[in-house]
Amino acid sequence: xxxxxxxxxxxxxxxxxxxxxxLIKLNKxxxxxxxxxxxxxxxxxxxxxxxxxxxxINGFKLKNSxxxxxxxxxxxVFKNSNLEKFQKLINEYRIRKIPILDNQxxxxxxxxxxxxxxxxxxxxxxxxxAGGRGxxxxxxxxxxPKPMVKINGRPILEKLILNCKDAGYYNFNISVNYLKNxxxxxxxNGESLGVKINYIDEKSPLGTVGSVGLIKKRILKKKKPIIxxxxxxxxxxxxxxILYFHNKNKNLITIVSSNYDFQNPYGxxxxxxxxxxxxxxxxxxxxxxxxxxxxxxxxxxxxIPNKKVFDMxxxxxxxLKKKFKIGNYKMEKYWHEIGNVNQYNDVIHYFS
Length: 352
What we know:
Blueprint: E1 12-14, H1 19-29, E2 33-37, E3 43-48, H2 49-57, E4 77-78, H3 87-92, E5 97-101, E6 107-112, E7 126-129, E8 150-151, E9 154-155, H4 156-166, E10 171-176, H5 180-187, E11 196-201, H6 216-222, E12 226-230, E13 233-235, H7 239-248, E14 253-263, E15 267-272, E16 275-281, E17 284-296, H8 312-321, E18 326-330, E19 335-337, H9 341-351
Parallel strand pairs: 1-2, 4-5, 7-10, 7-12, 10-11, 14-18
Antiparallel strand pairs: 2-3, 5-6, 8-9, 12-17, 13-19, 14-17, 15-16
C-alpha cells in the first residue's frame, strides 16, 4: 500500500507559471521538486531546481514560461502499484517524491520515500499452465519442458513467478504434465523465491484451463478471483493493476490482450478490371490478440468440466453465448510468446 504524503497538494503548480514564480514556490516550500498539472488536474510533468538551473544556463529568463523546462516524462505510479519493484530505480535516481495517478492520469497524491513502505501481500491464487509438450520448439524441448527454456539465463517460468511476486502475489499453482519432475525439482515449494508453490498434476493433457477444475474446492472456498497465465510468455505486466481493473469493472472474466504486428513478406497489389489500382510493399497488419493472462471470477470454475480437455477459448465462447460480462485489459508494454524456434530466437535477440 502506498502512503500518501499529507502535504502533497502544496507541491502542485499550474503549467502556465514562469520560472520566477516556480523558484519562489520551491524556495518557500524548501522542496526540490514540484508537480506540474493542467487546469483539469492531469499530470503534465515535474520540475526540479536542477531543471531550472539548466534552463537558466541555456539562456532562459525568469519571465519565461516553464513549458520548455519541466520534465514531461516523469516517474509516477498508480494508486494500486506495488512500489517494491521500483525500489532499485528510486534509490539509483534518488527520487524523493513520487506522483500518484488514477487511471485517468489525474494527480491524486504523492509518495515520499522518507515514509515507510507497507507492502501488501495479495492472496489471490495464480495458476500457471506449464504442462504442454512444446512440440513446435523441438529440439529445444526434447529434454526440458517449454516453460523451463531459459531467457538470459533464467527459465521463462521463473521470470513469470518473479513478475507476479513483484506485484504482491505469493500463492502459485503450477499445472504440470510433460517432464514435470524437472519443474518440481527446480522450484520445489517455492521457498527459495519467497513464494508458495503447489502443483496440479495432469495425468493427461486437459487443455489451457481444464486442470483448474482439479482445484475447484480450494478456489470456491477462498471466494476470490483467480489469475490464469500461460507458461510460455515473456511480458511486462502488473497484475495488481489488472486485478484492480477486473474488480472495478465487476467483470466475470477479464481477458488481457496485446497488439501483434505481422508483416507480409510480399508486395501486395489491388486491381480493378485487370488494371493496377495500388501497390503496398510488404505491408504490416496489426491485430489485437489474447496475451495468455486471464482473471476469472471464482464461480467460473463451476463451468470447467471434471477431468476433461477444456480450453480457455471454450470457456470464453460459453460466456459469450450466455452474454456474461467479459472485460478486456489492453497491455501496452512488451509481450512475447515462446511458441516456436523462430519466436524463441526473436526473444533472445530482443533481450540481447
